[in-house]
Amino acid sequence: MANEFKPMKFGCGRYIQAPGAMAAIGREAAMLKGTKALIIGGKKALEATGAPIEESLKAAGVEPYFYTMETDCCYETLDYLKNTLVPEKKFDLVIGSGGGKVIDMAKATGKGSGLPVINAPSSIATFNCFSAMSVMYTKDHRPIDRIWHETENDAVILDTQILANAPVKLFASGMADAFAKYIETGLMDENYTVRNTAPGMYASKVMAGATNEIILNKGEKAYRDCINHEVSDEFDACVFATVATTGVAAAVNYSNHSLIRSGSGKGATFAHAMYYATKTVFLDETAEWLHGEIVGLGCQAEMHAFGRSEYEAKNFGRFLQAIGQPMTLRDIGIEPTDANIRKLVDCMMVVWGKHPEHHWQIMYDSLQTIKG
Q1: Cβ neighbours of residue 217 closer than 8 Å, sequence gap 6 or more
Q2: Positive or negative CA dihedral for 234, 239, 240, 242?
Q3: Sign of the four-CA dihedral 204, 205, 208, 213
Q4: Which of 99, 147, 347, 372 is the most buried (most CB within 10 A)?
Q5: What is the pLDDT of residue 2?
Q6: Can you tell me the mean pLDDT for 40-60?
Q7: β-strand partners of 36
Q8: Is pLDDT of 23 > 50?
């Protein structure tokens, strides 16, 4: 009976976004009754965030312990952190500071150990600092599954000056990834209205649409400002849209996976399946390309799958090109032979949940539009 009640997890207990916000991490840790914090970070990330995190924690009376993560978010590292380091050092709080895989590891370690989690990312190539989920990889960098955490993150701290100082490639990838909540789910379809759509799904449509509107209108300026390490109003707006509105849009419609076709019955969701498929069967070829970059490319193909107008599809492609995103399979290192496309589609059919058989042809035809 208890399993019938599925909780919605909206991302985090407290959300702070501002230049210099890393100075608040000590206060947030103390509010969570933290006395000894495990900070999981990437080597480059901690060069930017380590000093302000340490200073703020010590000022709040919280002892910091830094662990530099040198692997993917894999079960071997998780086992060591959760079952050896945490009990050995008696941590009572976990902080993640770095890119996506570091943040995922911090969430998996903290939530798996029953400890509060603060995410203070050094970049926002995805919105995963907000989500209650960790993507797990093998030791040879291939995605294998996901851990769905039982509770939200306790705090997310976005120091926008640190984010603006990060490589612009990461920020652009995050904006590209954010489009998936509107395009990939098919919520842009006009047939989903307030009169015939479940409230969670409709609320997701409105918020995901707002994300798209903010990024399409402000994203090019924000991209140029990030190149100059400037925290402008446009940059701030796109950070919020990429993380907060995207995260809530995803969480409020926790049954998004059921949106597998447009009102015409011709659409299919596959942008995230395309990412995981490329990292499964074309790992070496796509090694240098980020999650959001590949998802954005998949969204381009989905514009055609969902029957959007040529004008709308070209306008979306023009924006992605303006922020330096890949435009074709060839761009991400995949030679678009028929055999390779068929191999990719075969994997896409099963890697992100099993698709109905008629989706194979939809995916195949859609990928033809981004062959290059």
Answers
A1: none
A2: positive
A3: negative
A4: 99
A5: 55
A6: 95
A7: 63
A8: yes
Can you tell me the distance from the alpha carbon of 96 to that of 118, in angstroms, rounded to the nearest whole number? Answer: 6
Please, what are the domains in the chain? 7-165 (3.40.50.1970), 168-370 (1.20.1090.10)
Which residues 6+ apart lie within 8 Å of 115 measured at CB? 86, 91, 92, 93, 94, 109
Tally the C-alpha atoms within 13 A of residue 134's C-alpha that lie toward its C-beta.
Answer: 29
Amino acid at site 221: K
Residue 296, both tokens: 């954005």
Angle at CA of residue 366, ends 360 and 372, nearest 5°: 130
Burial class (CB in 10 A: 0-12, 13-18, 19+), 15: middle
- How confident is the model over 318-339, as pLDDT tens digits? 999 999 999 999 999 999 999 9
Beta bridge partners of 206: none
Partners of residue 118 on adjacent β-strands: 95, 155
Q: Whole-angstrom Cα distance, residue 220 to residue 222?
A: 5
Beta bridge partners of 158: 17
